[in-house]
Amino acid sequence: MKKIAVIGSTGSVGRQTLDVIRRNRELFDVVLLSANSNSELLEEQCAEFGVERSCLSRGKNGCLVSMLKDTDADLVLVAAVGAAGILPAYETVKKGTDIALANKESIVAAGRLILDEAKKSGARVIPVDSEHSAIYQCLMGQKKEHVAKIVLTASGGAFRKTPNDALEFMGVQEALKHPNWSMGSKITVDSATMMNKGLELIEARYLFDVTPDRLDVVIHPQSIVHSAVCYTDGSMLAQMGYPDMRTPISFALGLPDRINSGVKQLDLSEISRLDFFKPDLDKYGCLRIAFQVLKKDMNGPMIVMNAANEIAVEHFLRKSISFIDIAPVIENVLDAFGECKAEGIDEILDLDRAARLKCSDLIFARR
After folding, report:
1. What is the CATH number of the domain that holds 102?
2. pTM score, two decimals?
3. What's the number of domains the chain is made of?
4. 97 and 24, same structural domain?
5. What secondary structure, in 3-state letters, does the chain show?
6. What are the tens digits of pLDDT across the range 263-274?
7. Which one, out of 4, 64, 167, 308, has a CA that is 20 to 30 A from the CA of 34?
8. Based on the domain organization, do 143 and 243 belong to the same domain?
């Protein structure tokens, strides 16, 4: 049996991970569960899966990191939200344990460091984002030098059909109405701004070691094609399926085998049509910013952008800034830090904290 640890087990991805494990009990032994603050659900999960080791971090990673170092897991699924996933991911690969990564922020902020440590230790980094799981699968058995372009698909989020001049009137409730996916609040807002796709571009740059000029985004409203890889011979390989996170989760858990995810088979006759078009970067200011940061290809601005976005979204969810304030706030924080760099894990975490504080200060100054 494969021993599994789930970081962020009470969140959306964590709950869906346990649903996949529940369907494949004979294959997995859950050895560690962690949550940020939902103690009641964490206790229920531990009781159901017979887990003896659990951690309630409440925003602090000390206890969790210590447990990860002592836990004999074959695979750690990192589903913690935001920068909370950086240290657990880093310490896990440093130990030589494979990670299934559903936390894009850890790669955006510390991608080179985490992947370098994984290379040294022999740990595998298996993406769980539907887009990166799709790319991972489309690259299997192929040569890197034959890759011409990687294309990430995006739903366009809750405001895909909303006129640009109406965005200023869109509130939290509207932003959380994702047309296709069932996700947590933060990533659903990121989908509405398309910052999630910006973060995924940077994640793809590191995960698949491709230059920024070979990365692109298209809006695909149906969310059936999860991403595609273009090859030098003119071929394009794409991974398809209904929009359900249990598909990429089951792929990461079962690799190299395919296991029961609970997701129904795709029926192309039921879909009937698939649409694709370029995103409007005037409408999606956060994606425009992310493209600019990606082009610089420096980890400092990536860390700052990620941290500023996290704080800006948090304030939007609290209704202390408007939806259209998110992108300008991020831009202002990036301007304040310029083209900075962060080398080791401590420098990365320090810059992340500094950017968060700066973002909070700028938001309070706008009131």
Report:
1. 3.40.50.720
2. 0.93
3. 3
4. yes
5. CEEEEEECCCCHHHHHHHHHHHHCCCCEEEEEEEECCCHHHHHHHHHHHCCCCEEECCCCCHHHHHHHHHCCCCEEEECCCHHHHHHHHHHHHHHCCEEEECCHHHHHHHHHHHHHHHHHHCCCEEECCHHHHHHHHHHCCCCHHHEEEEEEEECCCCCCCCCHHHHHHCCHHHHCCCCCCCCCHHHHHHHHHCHHHHHHHHHHHHHCCCCHHHEEEEECCCCCEEEEEEECCCCEEEEECCCCCHHHHHHHHHCCCCCCCCCCCCCHHHHCCCCCECCCCCCCHHHHHHHHHHHHCCHHHHHHHHHHHHHHHHHHHCCCCCHHHHHHHHHHHHHHHCCCCCCCHHHHHHHHHHHHHHHHHHHHHHC
6. 999 999 999 899
7. 308
8. yes
